């Protein structure tokens, strides 16, 4: 898998941009893709964000396996974060996020009230790798689609803040935090879910990865989607890919069959799915 987007210079720049803006916010909304919650994180996120209170926002829950999403939510809560699963694309408003933030920051808000601030507000920053849905989340969070200029103490002039409600403001994502294709499986997962551009990966590798995954993890869904019988399902993934290629009239152009598997996975032809579970992380935790 190409390592093209991971340049130390890019990372350092993005990291500085994020850390500079972190000073301005009370909490961080880290957006990830529910189908690949870990693969879709920047691996330096914990170092970058540090101790700043964080809500793990598992977006695109409509595309993910609900049981596995529940496992991930429990996992992140155990790690000390707040966690919520959402479908930003189909939600009208995302009031749950400000509500959860206020609940998480209750102690701070109470303290401010006791100091005479009548309606204390919270400021958040939305971060995540490209394509996890940050813009969609922001759009669903803001009340009016206007950017307000902060002129309160501690807020840099001309800083763009989006108003979610009277007491919740969100800062647009600063800098781009790329994922790192540290191992091939991370690249395969990101490619299969459409997080990385088609030019970056080899369709035959990713398609075979997908077919193997669905054959093992969601056999009924695969069987139904492609009208497969027991004999088909008993084949090794590579042989099944060859058989599918022939069935679809692509002959020996196996990459076309692989591309079709990728397309179908992204379109939801196999139903909702999740490519990783917290147990996969054993021994790999940050
Ligand atoms: P980014 O700012 O983090 O880069 O992501 P962005 O909001 O642009 O979202 C990336 C893609 O993911 C978009 O699709 C968006 O519609 C989709 N998306 C965001 N949230 C959700 C969700 O909760 N569920 C589903 N199913 N999709 C979501 P796109 O193909 O790039 O554009 P389009 O198809 O919306 O035109």
From TrEMBL:
The keyword Methyltransferase does not apply. It is found in: Cytoplasm. Pfam families: MMR_HSR1. CDD domains: YlqF. Residues 15-179 form the CP-type G domain. Keywords: Cytoplasm, GTP-binding, Nucleotide-binding. SUPFAM superfamilies: P-loop containing nucleoside triphosphate hydrolases. InterPro entries: G_CP_dom, GTP-bd, GTP-bd_ortho_bundle_sf, GTP-bd_ribosome_bgen, GTPase_MTG1, P-loop_NTPase. Its main location: cytoplasm. Required for a late step of 50S ribosomal subunit assembly. Has GTPase activity. NCBIfam families: GTPase_YlqF. Belongs to the TRAFAC class YlqF/YawG GTPase family. MTG1 subfamily. PANTHER family: MITOCHONDRIAL RIBOSOME-ASSOCIATED GTPASE 1. This is Ribosome biogenesis GTPase A.
């Amino acid at each position: 898998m190409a390592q093209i987007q991971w340049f130390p210079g890019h990372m350092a720049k993005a990291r500085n941009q994020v850390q500079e803006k972190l000073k301005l916010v009370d909490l961080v909304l880290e957006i990830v893709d529910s189908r690949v919650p870990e693969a879709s994180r920047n691996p330096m996120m914990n170092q970058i964000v540090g101790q700043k209170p964080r809500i793990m926002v598992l977006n695109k829950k409509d595309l993910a396996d609900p049981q596995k999403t529940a496992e991930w939510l429990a996992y992140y809560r155990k790690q000390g974060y707040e966690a919520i699963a959402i479908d930003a694309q189909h939600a009208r408003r995302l009031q749950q996020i400000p509500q959860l933030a206020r609940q998480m920051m209750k102690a701070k808000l109470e303290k401010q009230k006791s100091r005479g601030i009548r309606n204390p507000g919270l400021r958040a920053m939305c971060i995540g790798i490209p394509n996890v849905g940050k813009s969609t989340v922001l759009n669903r969070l803001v009340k009016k689609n206007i950017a307000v200029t902060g002129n309160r103490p501690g807020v840099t002039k001309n800083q763009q803040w989006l108003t979610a409600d009277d007491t919740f403001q969100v800062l647009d994502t600063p800098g781009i935090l790329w994922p790192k294709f540290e191992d091939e499986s991370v690249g395969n997962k990101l490619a299969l879910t459409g997080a990385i551009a088609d030019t970056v990966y080899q369709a035959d590798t990713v398609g075979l990865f997908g077919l193997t995954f669905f054959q093992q993890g969601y056999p009924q869904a695969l069987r139904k989607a492609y009208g497969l019988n027991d004999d088909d399902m008993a084949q090794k993934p590579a042989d099944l890919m060859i058989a599918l290629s022939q069935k679809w009239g692509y002959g020996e152009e196996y990459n076309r069959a692989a591309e079709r598997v990728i397309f179908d996975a992204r379109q939801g032809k196999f139903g909702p799915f999740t490519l990783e579970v917290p147990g996969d992380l054993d021994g790999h935790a940050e």
